[in-house]
């Protein structure tokens, strides 16, 4: 009786959640199998797999997939490695610890569009940006980062915003670490590196897996930074799958091809997340 009442109370939220997921997915699948353009909405004949073939054979598809994976892996590496190191540093008590923590975490609360504008205009501008001023102060020629190194520029922007998230998770996890273990290890002659390698890293195994999983979901959908700063260019140098789908849907008005691309992106995201989480979990628990 109690189970029936529990299921009955949960039913509205479960039905709403399923409708919220299934209806958009069903519409995306439907649009991916028909010929549908925003220019000619009346022409919606069934075309089967042609939209998928069209999207895969697009000259921008391979660069977009490559850029998506490079962006994902680079940002994950930067945020996890530097996140662990910075978390271990600020976990020890020192003067101004609270202020330093707030400053390190604050970039995570900046909107992606604002983040891109800050880096584009204040940091990477080749005329009046901070990087240009540093180069000129050293007697070097300023670099136009967004034109010369577009993908690296996007990686820097996204890493700067997501590094605080990793720090926040790791610092929280370190606060639950057993201090008696560390004290016993120090009494046995263990150095700071040994404690970090054999106690801290294994303790952070699950938080690292959580950070990788959550960041993977969002990093595969990076869009605002690319739209605001590089526009996917020069050429396809900074185009990822998300921006390519946007280009097909809202710039080329080909909703059908964009729907096919969206489904391919979902499949790719699940494959990448599956292998990344398994690899991280296996390496950290060895």
TrEMBL record:
The chain crosses the membrane at residues 9-31, 69-90, 102-119, 151-174, 207-229, 249-277. It holds the Pfam family BPD_transp_1. Coiled coil: none annotated. InterPro entries: MetI-like, MetI-like_sf. Its main location: membrane. Residues 65-276 form the ABC transmembrane type-1 domain. It is a multi-pass membrane protein. Belongs to the binding-protein-dependent transport system permease family. PANTHER family: BLR7065 PROTEIN (PTHR43005), INTEGRAL MEMBRANE SUGAR TRANSPORT PROTEIN (PTHR43005:SF2). This is Sugar ABC transporter permease. The lineage of its organism: Bacteria, Pseudomonadati, Pseudomonadota, Gammaproteobacteria, Oceanospirillales.
């Amino acid at each position: 009786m109690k189970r029936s009442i529990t299921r009955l109370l949960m039913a509205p939220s479960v039905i709403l959640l399923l409708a919220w997921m299934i209806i958009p997915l069903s519409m995306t699948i439907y649009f991916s199998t028909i010929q549908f353009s925003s220019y000619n909405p009346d022409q919606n004949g069934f075309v089967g797999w042609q939209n998928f073939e069209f999207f895969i054979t697009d000259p921008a598809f391979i660069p977009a997939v490559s850029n998506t994976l490079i962006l994902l892996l680079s940002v994950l590496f930067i945020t996890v490695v530097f996140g662990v190191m910075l978390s271990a540093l600020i976990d020890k008590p020192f003067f101004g610890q609270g202020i330093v923590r707030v400053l390190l975490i604050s970039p995570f609360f900046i909107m992606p569009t604002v983040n891109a504008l800050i880096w584009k205009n204040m940091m990477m501008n080749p005329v009046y940006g901070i990087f240009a001023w540093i180069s000129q102060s050293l007697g070097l020629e300023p670099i136009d980062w967004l034109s010369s190194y577009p993908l690296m520029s996007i990686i820097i922007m996204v890493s700067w915003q997501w590094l605080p998230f990793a720090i926040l998770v790791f610092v929280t996890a370190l606060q639950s670490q057993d201090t008696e273990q560390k004290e016993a290890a120090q009494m046995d002659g263990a150095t700071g590196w040994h404690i970090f390698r054999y106690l801290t890293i294994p303790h952070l195994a699950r938080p690292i897996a959580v950070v990788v999983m959550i960041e993977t979901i969002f990093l595969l959908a990076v869009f605002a930074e690319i739209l605001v700063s590089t526009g996917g260019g020069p050429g396809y140098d900074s185009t990822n799958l998300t921006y390519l789908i946007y280009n097909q849907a809202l710039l080329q008005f080909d909703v059908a091809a964009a729907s096919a691309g969206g489904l391919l992106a979902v499949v790719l995201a699940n494959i990448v997340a599956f292998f990344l989480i398994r690899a991280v979990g296996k390496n950290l628990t060895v």
